[in-house]
Amino acid sequence: MLLATPDYPVISAWFEEAAKMAAVCEVQEVPCSSGESETSAADLATQKREERLKKFRDLHLKRSESRKLNHLAVAEEDRMLKLPANWESKRTRLEWEIKVEEKKKECLEKGEDYQRVKLLEVSADDAERWERKKKKKNSDPGFSDFAAAQFRQYQRLVKQIKPDMEEYAKQKDDVGEEFYANANSLIHGTHVPSKAGVDRLVADVEKQIEKRAKYSRRRRYNDDADIDYINERNANFNKKAERFYGKYTAEIKQNLERGTAV
């Protein structure tokens, strides 16, 4: 908060009185030998007085300007304090979304693909950094449906493929122009896989079977277990009793089942 200051007319009057007193003192110090010397001394005093008044006015204008700027800064700081804590991030996000929408409209008007234009503006360093971040993330969200599981399996198998360029070139020479099939190509069923390829397929299938054998889903009821309950509530009670007292009543239960109980 700025302190209250007197009004400008009061300050000006005070400045003028101070300047007059200074001028009188200067005039008294100057020796008055003739009329010309008195005139020059008066002119000199008037000039100094005007210079001092000009300096005082400049100081007053600077003070008024600083007071105005100080008030604006305090008002802006108070406005920022009243805003939410994450206002800056929200404002940046909204500005970015507005720019994206404008860019999409511009691409739509020109008949261009926005994703393609966006990728053309990405530098190589940014693209490499994004790829590293993607690799660090765990892209497997777990089982959602069988189609998604099949697609993940396909992606995994494709990543494991290591192309043999020598075999590729050999097949290309053997087939000739029919290597790149078209609507008139009749090469279906003519390809014979190599022994190494068949072995890889067999090994991969056996690996999948072995891995699948380790999986087991949790079953709510065991179909092979003895039925010693009449409803679900009674089944839960029997499980609790078996858990706490089963080791003490195991012999009695066996005797009852064999029919040799005393």
Low-confidence stretches: 1-11, 24-33
User: Approximately how much helix is present in the residues?
Assistant: over 70%
Q: What is the oligomer described by this structure?
A: single chain
Largest sheet: none
What structural class do you assign from the helix and strand content? mainly alpha
Rg over CA atoms: 48 Å
Structure description:
- It is built from nine helices and no strands.
- With 262 residues, the protein is an all-alpha fold.
- Helix 1 runs antiparallel to helix 2 (35-82).
- The longest helix is centred in the N-terminal third of the chain and has 48 residues, at 35-82.
- It is flat.
List keywords for this structure.
9 helices; 0% strand; 262 residues; disordered N terminus; 71% helix; single chain
Question: Quick recap of the structure?
Answer:
The protein is an all-alpha fold. It has helices spanning 8-29, 35-82, 87-110, 114-120, 124-136, 146-160, 165-175, 195-213, 232-258.
Q: Which helices and strands occur, and which strands form pairs?
A:
Elements: H1 8-29, H2 35-82, H3 87-110, H4 114-120, H5 124-136, H6 146-160, H7 165-175, H8 195-213, H9 232-258
Helix pairs in contact: 1-2
